[in-house]
């Protein structure tokens, strides 16, 4: 099982922090969290992957799904603090240019 | 708290066991009625205060289903099932307070659990993935017909946890969709294998020869299990439809883009995506064209022993509607070998960051395609895969070498 930290900052940006392994079961939960945020008007979301040790294709799917719905609602989804091991998953699938990794959560929406 | 039984734990067995637990993807506490009805019935039948199906996951023991108590998880060291898992056989403790292994546990000292019976639940290859448990607040026995009934219910719980008949039938159907025999033409040798982590999986591969050209495709649908298998069957059929065009020389970027367009609506509805590696190899001269849709998992070892990664900048199918794909080319010289595989294999190697080094080494060591696939299969046996593992090997011998 995996824990999710969910936090909406003063500037309206939602920060979701999955802690542990993001696999098929936990990706389902992540997808729900992301759609709830967008449905409730938080369309700018940072997923902080600093506490995520493992990410499989279902995890990727949840992030891509979240990205699509955030953009449709006029916002964006960005990922931050990606470990080198998890980064290889984005690089292999060439999704690193759709979901560009940011150094820090704070600065994820600075550009 | 450590106990003397902890020394029973073999780190290799424990690592395999842990991976097996992770591959099962069991639903959270109380969510699965299939387990709930077993623990409910057991509480009534055995007249005990508590029952559970327990899974040891890392340092935690958690309960996919439990009756008579309201806790979702406990530290592994505080659980009764720690011992039953390590022993790997039925454990009946008639008085926990009189047993060295259990008398220190908080629940025993509180008087809440004075009787414990645990039966290990194993997956198809024997890993202990869970324990079926009875607990009572007073010492008691479990003998004769009741003991037999406990074993029966454990077998039932095991089946619910690990598999069902319908799924194993689906697995046979899926396996029958794969090519049934290798290609052996001239100096060429092509063979593949697909080992789903669950009964059915989201990986698929296909190959054949048309017009003197080998066509080969390996796809991986997001996720695993039945949903991924259904999407995979559709993708496989769409890709098959391009074989005659591809082997006649049509650009693989064009056919891949057509396939992606035709799958897009289905993939968006299913909220899924597919990675694909597809190649066409001319048997006469080894001229090879390929397209890569976010797979990135193809290696060629040249006759000189150099490892080349065949990848691209193109994304998987189902990500962006306006994406398109492009063809790349190279030549497989006599003595060259190629391995196309799914990311499940990356889980099984020690250094997934520089995976092409150990996998390139496996390719150099193998005498032929079958030997390479055998070493991939050995890795999956040694380290229980978390995801489907699929691989197709292409070997071109030196001319005149049998």
3D architecture notes:
The complex is a heterodimer of chains A (111) and B (402). Chain A is an alpha/beta fold and 111 residues long. Chain A has one domain (3-93): STAS domain (Transcription Regulator spoIIAA), CATH 3.30.750.24. Chain A has 3 helices and 6 strands, in the order E-E-H-E-E-H-E-H-E. Chain A has helices spanning 24-39, 57-72, 84-92, and strands at 3-8, 14-22, 44-48, 52-55, 76-80, 101-102. In chain A, strands 1, 2, 3, 4, 5 and 6 form a 6-stranded mixed β-sheet that branches. In chain A, helix 1 packs parallel to helix 2 (57-72). Chain B is α+β, with helices and mostly antiparallel strands and 402 residues long. Chain B folds into 2 domains: 4-162, GAF domain (Beta-Lactamase, 2-Layer Sandwich); 170-396, PPM-type phosphatase domain (Phosphatase 2c, domain 1). Helices cover 33% and strands 27% of the residues of chain B. Chain B has 11 helices and 17 strands. Chain B has helices spanning 11-24, 33-46, 81-87, 106-109, 144-162, 165-176, 226-240, 243-247, 252-270, 356-365, 369-382, and strands at residues 50-57, 60-67, 73-75, 91-93, 115-122, 128-136, 183-185, 188-195, 203-210, 213-221, 274-282, 287-293, 298-301, 307-309, 328-331, 337-341, 389-396. In chain B, the strands form 3 sheets. In chain B, strands 3-2-1-6-5-4 form a 6-stranded antiparallel β-sheet, with helices on both faces. In chain B, strands 7-8-17-16-13-14 form a 6-stranded antiparallel β-sheet, with helices on one face. In chain B, strand 11 and strand 12 form a beta hairpin. The longest helix of chain B has 19 residues, at 144-162. Chain B is elongated, with a radius of gyration of 26 Å. Residues 1-6 of chain B have low confidence and may be disordered. Chain A: One of its GO terms (molecular function) is anti-sigma factor antagonist activity. Chain A: This is Anti-sigma factor antagonist. Chain A: Belongs to the anti-sigma-factor antagonist family. Chain A: Pfam families: STAS. Chain A: Residues 11-111 form the STAS domain. Chain B: This is Serine phosphatase RsbU, regulator of sigma subunit.
């Amino acid at each position: 099982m995996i824990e999710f930290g969910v936090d909406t900052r003063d500037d309206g940006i939602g920060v979701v922090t999955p802690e542990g392994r993001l696999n098929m079961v936990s990706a389902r939960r992540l997808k729900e969290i992301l759609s709830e945020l967008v449905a409730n008007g938080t369309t700018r979301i940072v997923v902080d992957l600093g506490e995520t040790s493992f990410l499989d294709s279902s995890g990727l799917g949840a992030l891509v799904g979240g990205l699509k719905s955030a953009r449709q609602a006029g916002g964006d989804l960005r990922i931050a603090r990606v470990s080198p091991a998890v980064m290889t998953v984005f690089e292999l699938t060439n999704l690193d240019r759709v979901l560009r990794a940011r150094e820090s959560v704070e600065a994820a929406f600075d550009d | 708290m450590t106990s003397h039984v902890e020394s029973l734990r073999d780190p290799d067995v424990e690592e395999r066991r842990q991976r097996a637990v992770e591959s099962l993807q069991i639903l959270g506490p109380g969510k699965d009625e299939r387990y709930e009805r077993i623990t409910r019935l057991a509480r009534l039948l055995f007249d005990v205060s508590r029952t559970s199906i327990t899974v040891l996951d890392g340092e935690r023991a958690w309960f996919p289903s439990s009756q008579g108590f309201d806790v979702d998880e406990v530290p592994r060291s505080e659980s009764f099932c720690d011992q039953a898992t390590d022993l790997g056989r039925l454990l009946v403790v008639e008085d926990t307070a009189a047993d060295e292994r259990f008398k220190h546990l908080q629940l025993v000292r509180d008087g809440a659990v004075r009787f414990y019976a645990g039966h290990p639940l194993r997956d198809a290859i024997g890993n202990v993935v869970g324990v079926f448990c009875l607990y009572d607040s007073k010492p008691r026995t479990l003998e004769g017909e009741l003991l037999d009934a406990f074993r029966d219910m454990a077998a039932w719980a095991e089946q619910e946890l690990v598999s069902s008949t319908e799924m194993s039938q689906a697995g046979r159907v899926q396996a029958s969709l794969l090519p049934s025999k290798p290609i052996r033409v001239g100096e060429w040798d092509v063979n593949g294998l697909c080992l789903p982590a669950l009964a059915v999986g989201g990986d698929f591969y296909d190959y054949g020869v048309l017009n003197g050209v080998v066509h080969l495709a390996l796809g991986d649908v997001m996720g695993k299990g039945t949903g991924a298998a259904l999407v995979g069957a559709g993708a496989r059929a769409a890709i098959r439809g391009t074989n005659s065009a591809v082997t006649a020389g049509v650009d693989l970027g064009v056919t891949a883009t057509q396939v992606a367009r035709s799958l897009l609506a289905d993939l968006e509805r299913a909220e899924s995506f597919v990675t694909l590696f597809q190649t066409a190899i001319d048997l006469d001269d080894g001229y090879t064209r390929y397209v890569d849709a976010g797979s990135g998992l193809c290696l060629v070892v040249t006759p000189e022993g150099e490892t080349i990664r065949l990848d691209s900048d193109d994304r998987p199918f189902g990500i962006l509607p306006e994406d398109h794909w492009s063809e790349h080319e190279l030549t497989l010289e006599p003595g060259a070998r190629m391995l196309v595989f799914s990311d499940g294999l990356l889980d099984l190697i020690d250094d997934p960051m520089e995976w092409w080094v150990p996998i390139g080494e496996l390719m150099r060591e193998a005498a032929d395609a079958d030997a390479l696939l055998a070493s991939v299969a050995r890795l999956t046996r040694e380290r229980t895969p978390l995801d489907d593992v699929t691989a197709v090997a292409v070997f071109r011998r030196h001319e005149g070498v049998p």
